[in-house]
Recover the amino acids of this structure.
């Protein structure tokens, strides 16, 4: 019996060992063979063919590029020692490389930059809270790399044992797209005190040397801008660097706004990056790409460096930030010393970029815009909306000024006065007006957050506002109630338990230097969502279904709560949940929304029509307008506050944007002791005729183009801008001081004309 029992135990042990071996093999096959079966990231799911591992890349890759994927249009080559790729357009023979070849090395860069230029992957590190830029690469850092073939390209595992880092990279040529992915589960930090700061994959893809190639880099600054590839002659020490979706106030300390007499802003902030895109165009070779950061975008920057910025090569790429450091106060004192502290955790997201490859006539920024629009619609990130033309006329309801021991209301546009404004606009021929009612809530413009549908008595109260909204809807005018769903006014509402705290556990505070209120806080994302839902439910009880949302639409941050760390990914999830819930029952217009919000917008407000005017920018382009026109209405910033109104009007003609005005019934001088003291020239009477003129001209253009998208946009040799729509309509815009002609059409100075 004992012998039989021992034999049974032996057999069980053997079976268990076999099971463990099979399990290990299965895990290995899953890691190597199923990495792109389903690519999942925050609220975004992408599917791509599952790569079948065919074995190690042969030894030829040790000495030269080898072909690893091919289709009817493109061919992909790979060089393992530098983890480098090369793309060939089979129709033209044009080539783009991801690393600087030895033949194109001008020998003028130091060893660190030379190593970086010739490496397909570049990491930087955090060591004991100190950040190092572009320190690790395939040439100057000891590494191990193993590469396997897949059905569409390669999968490589790369390790830098000196630092304890390792990651896997999958490169796939799928149709006219190149997909580069670092699966989240492959990223390893195995050495105590060493952390990955940034990861850049193929940061030199499509690089050019000085002015040897005609073309440009497209950057997502403002509406869009180009940096030419011509020889910059060393004029610029740096280039464009923009964090996608804007500054992370959970880590970064905001610089106080520059003001005159502590009242008037003298410096305008740079435009935030609203869309995770960038592009490179070689116009000589008619070869271009649009890069779309699909996953990891919430913690990535777009980098575009013209030649002369440290090295003589033009390059543009996305850089993923896995961790960062922040200032941690060492005591509760407001003047406490601080210590640099590493984030407790890195981001947990795949790092993925999709390159839309463009050839021939499509290899320009218009082709990039068309590709991006098709991508957004095809993946459900953007949905077609009602494109009916509406002039936007926003009004300010009530403000507050100091009075004795508290504040008193300053009514600027009551419900009765707004009704009169609509009547006057109708007499001027302006119908179908879109209005965002600002400062409608009890307590006025800066009494936030709003959780109930209660209108300020200074504008007429709740019943009067409800009656106006419903009656004007029958006249074709749509009133949206503004809700800043993110901001807390600590002077009017308690923020003790709901204010967002940065990673250093200090409450975030936004200073505004106002006449009445000096600073504001941000809500924690979950509380912001709850408040937005409460307001929507309360408004629906009175059949109010139109809301304009700001705050959460253009801000993204990490934060801490009760000792727990929440990433920008977590914040994005909560903001999206909040907006999607309200969108189910409300009509939403969103103020300057980030791309992940676009699918919920019936219209987009305050979309920039210009760039940030950096010195290295060679040309502004209406890139975002080209993407969105014909899909969702986009509205400009307020015409009132534009210094050059003629140029601003022409930009609306060029981009297809609808105009926006901000008016009051009362004289703006009444705002002098309020937080809106910086607003001037608001009186409706001063803008009645201008509103009517803009409405007539831009409505007529809108009727001509209908629901068509912008197919092409060109700046002709003589400076005339030609915009071509899908239905064949062409609009010519002349920004110069002289008449210009093209295609048999002559356009007067500072004017526009519609061609056949």
């Amino acid at each position: 019996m004992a012998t039989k029992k021992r034999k049974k135990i032996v057999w069980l042990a053997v079976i268990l060992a076999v099971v463990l071996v099979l399990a290990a093999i299965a895990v290995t096959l899953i890691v190597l063979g199923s990495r792109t079966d389903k690519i999942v990231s925050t609220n975004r799911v992408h599917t791509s063919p599952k790569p079948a591992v065919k074995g190690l890349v042969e030894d030829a890759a040790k000495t030269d590029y080898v072909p690893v994927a091919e289709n009817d249009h493109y061919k992909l080559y790979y060089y393992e020692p530098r983890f480098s790729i090369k793309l060939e357009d089979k129709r033209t023979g044009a080539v783009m490389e991801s690393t600087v070849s030895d033949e194109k090395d001008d020998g003028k860069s130091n060893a660190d930059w030379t190593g970086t230029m010739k490496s397909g992957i570049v990491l930087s590190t955090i060591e004991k809270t100190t950040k190092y830029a572009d320190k690790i690469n395939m040439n100057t850092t000891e590494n191990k790399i193993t590469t396997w073939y897949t059905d569409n390209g390669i999968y490589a595992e790369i390790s830098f044992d000196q630092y304890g880092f390792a990651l896997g990279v999958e490169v796939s040529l799928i149709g006219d797209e190149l997909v580069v992915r670092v699966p989240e589960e492959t990223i390893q930090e195995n050495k105590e005190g060493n952390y990955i700061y940034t990861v850049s994959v193929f940061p030199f893809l499509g690089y050019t040397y000085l002015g040897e190639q005609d073309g440009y880099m497209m950057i997502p600054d403002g509406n869009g801008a180009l940096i030419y590839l011509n020889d910059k002659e060393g004029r610029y020490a740096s280039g464009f660097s923009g964090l996608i979706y804007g500054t992370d106030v959970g880590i970064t300390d905001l610089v106080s706004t520059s003001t005159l007499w502590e009242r008037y802003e003298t410096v305008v902030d740079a435009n935030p990056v609203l869309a995770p895109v960038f592009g490179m165009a070689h116009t000589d070779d008619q070869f271009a790409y649009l890069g779309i950061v699909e996953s990891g975008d919430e913690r990535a920057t777009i980098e575009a460096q013209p030649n002369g910025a440290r090295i003589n090569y033009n390059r543009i790429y996305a850089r993923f930030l896995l961790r960062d450091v922040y200032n941690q106060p060492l005591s509760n004192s407001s003047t406490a010393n601080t210590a640099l502290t590493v984030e407790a955790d890195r981001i947990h997201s795949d790092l993925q970029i999709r390159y839309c490859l463009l050839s021939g006539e499509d290899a320009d920024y218009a082709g990039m815009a068309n590709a991006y629009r098709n991508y957004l619609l095809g993946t459900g990130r953007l949905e077609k909306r009602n494109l009916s033309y509406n002039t936007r006329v926003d009004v300010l309801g009530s403000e507050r000024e100091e009075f004795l021991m508290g504040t008193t209301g300053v009514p600027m546009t009551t419900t009765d006065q707004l009704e009169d404004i609509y009547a006057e606009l109708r007499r001027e021929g302006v119908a179908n007006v879109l209005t965002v009612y600002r400062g409608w809530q009890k307590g006025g413009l800066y009494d936030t957050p709003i959780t109930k549908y209660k209108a300020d008595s200074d504008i007429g109260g709740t019943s009067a506002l409800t009656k106006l909204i419903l009656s004007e809807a029958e006249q074709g005018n749509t009133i949206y109630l503004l809700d800043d769903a993110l901001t807390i006014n600590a002077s009017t509402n308690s923020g003790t338990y709901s204010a967002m705290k940065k990673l250093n556990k200090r409450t975030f505070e936004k200073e505004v230097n106002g006449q009445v209120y000096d600073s504001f806080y941000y809500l924690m994302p979950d509380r912001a969502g709850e408040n937005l839902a409460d307001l929507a439910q309360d408004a629906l009880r009175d059949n109010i279904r139109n809301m304009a949302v700001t705050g959460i639409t253009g801000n993204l941050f990490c934060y801490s709560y009760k000792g727990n760390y929440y990433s920008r990914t977590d914040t994005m999830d909560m903001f999206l949940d909040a907006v999607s819930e309200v969108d189910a029952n409300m009509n939403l217009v969103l103020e300057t929304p980030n791309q992940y919000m676009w699918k919920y917008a019936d219209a987009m407000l305050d979309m920039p029509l210009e760039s940030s005017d950096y010195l290295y920018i060679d040309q502004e382009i209406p890139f975002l307008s080209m993407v969105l026109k014909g899909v969702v209405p986009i509205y400009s910033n307020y015409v009132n506050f534009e210094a050059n109104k003629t140029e601003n009007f022409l930009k609306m003609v060029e981009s297809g944007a609808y105009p926006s005005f901000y008016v009051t019934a009362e004289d703006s001088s009444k705002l002098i002791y309020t937080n809106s003291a910086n607003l001037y020239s608001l009186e409706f009477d001063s803008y009645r005729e201008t509103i009517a003129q803009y409405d007539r001209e831009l409505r007529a253009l809108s009727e001509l183009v209908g629901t068509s998208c912008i197919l092409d946009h060109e700046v002709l040799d003589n400076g005339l801008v030609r915009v071509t729509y899908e239905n064949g309509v062409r609009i010519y815009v002349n920004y110069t001081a002289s008449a210009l002609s093209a295609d048999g059409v002559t356009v007067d100075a500072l004017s526009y004309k519609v061609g056949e």
